[in-house]
UniProtKB/TrEMBL annotation:
<comment type="similarity">
    <text>Belongs to the bacterial ribosomal protein bS21 family.</text>
</comment>
<protein>
    <submittedName>
        <fullName>Uncharacterized protein</fullName>
    </submittedName>
</protein>
<keyword id="KW-0687">Ribonucleoprotein</keyword>
<dbReference type="GO" id="GO:0003735">
    <property type="term" value="F:structural constituent of ribosome"/>
</dbReference>
<keyword id="KW-0689">Ribosomal protein</keyword>
<dbReference type="Pfam" id="PF01165">
    <property type="entry name" value="Ribosomal_S21"/>
</dbReference>
<dbReference type="GO" id="GO:0070124">
    <property type="term" value="P:mitochondrial translational initiation"/>
</dbReference>
<dbReference type="GO" id="GO:0005763">
    <property type="term" value="C:mitochondrial small ribosomal subunit"/>
</dbReference>
<dbReference type="InterPro" id="IPR001911">
    <property type="entry name" value="Ribosomal_bS21"/>
</dbReference>
<dbReference type="InterPro" id="IPR052837">
    <property type="entry name" value="Mitoribosomal_bS21"/>
</dbReference>
Amino acid sequence: GRRVTVPRGDLGLAFNRLNQRLRRNRVWYELRRTARHEKKGYKRRRLESERWRKQFAHEVRKKVKLVDTIRRRGA
């Protein structure tokens, strides 16, 4: 299970921390994915798409970082 400390009885803060942790660990996403059976072909395509999106986002972040460093140099 998940545990979150409740600082000084602030239940709202503890609840928000728990939600953040669940979001970061993608618990709700996995729950929705496993609610129904997914055919092997669909799963393979979905995982391939997720990998591609993750890789693409990483490359975009790298390019933006590169452009920022070039701009900082005064080009």
